[in-house]
């Protein structure tokens, strides 16, 4: 029986939610999933629908989510082991006022010094072994370099470094490694996130696209 995925897209248009959702759909179909795509958060409010899925993929930057909409998602991941996976602002800048969502997803966007077009490295964390990043080389990106407030319990698979030469901003003064790709557990469920994905072409960088494919499969309910 084919695995079932639900992609829900919307929110701020600047992150190309429909285009990003289409990429997720293409990858999942190629992996043998049956995929349902919705453009309303009310899809998350339908418990019967949500609990029937093996993977949930939010692609929704900013906005607000109601208790009726987030409740089934939290329960699906924590109690039913349904996976959650996403990227960039579509998952970790989704609902800024909702701390339950931030606890579920593992981080919250707070800045991108230098804005779009900043050139920065994505460094695979060789201290952690994961099927998601095994055999993947470090690579470079020109995009928004996400500075996140991160759950210290996440499993960091790749990171970037701050400060970045030429990227102005008050957050660049304190040298640090910033997680960019990670996994975590939320109750029984697996959560996968990549901070890349300001536009679809960034997710189509070969190394990132392969990590994304593996991450979606990894997060899926066993």
Summarize the structure.
This protein is an alpha/beta fold and 222 residues long. 30% of the residues lie in helices and 32% in strands. A nine-stranded mixed β-sheet has the order 2-1-3-4-11-10-9-6-7.
Structural class: alpha/beta
Oligomer: single chain
CATH class value:
Alpha Beta
Tell the overall outline. Answer: globular
Q: Describe the main β-sheet briefly.
A: 9 strands, mixed
Low-confidence stretches: none
Can you lay out the helices and strands and say which pair or pack?
Layout: E1 4-11, H1 17-30, E2 34-38, H2 42-45, H3 47-51, E3 55-61, H4 67-80, E4 83-87, H5 88-92, H6 99-105, E5 107-111, E6 118-124, E7 139-143, E8 147-150, E9 155-162, E10 176-186, E11 189-194, H7 200-203, H8 206-219
Explain what the structure shows:
The structure is a single chain. This protein has 222 residues and is of the alpha/beta class. The chain has a single domain (4-219), classed as Class I glutamine amidotransferase (GATase) domain (Rossmann fold, 3-Layer(aba) Sandwich). It contains eight helices and eleven strands. Helix 1 links the parallel strand 1 (4-11) and strand 2. The longest helix is centred in the N-terminal third of the chain and has 14 residues, at 17-30. It is globular.
List keywords for this structure.
11 strands, 8 helices, two-stranded antiparallel ribbon, 222 residues, alpha/beta, Rossmann fold, nine-stranded mixed beta sheet
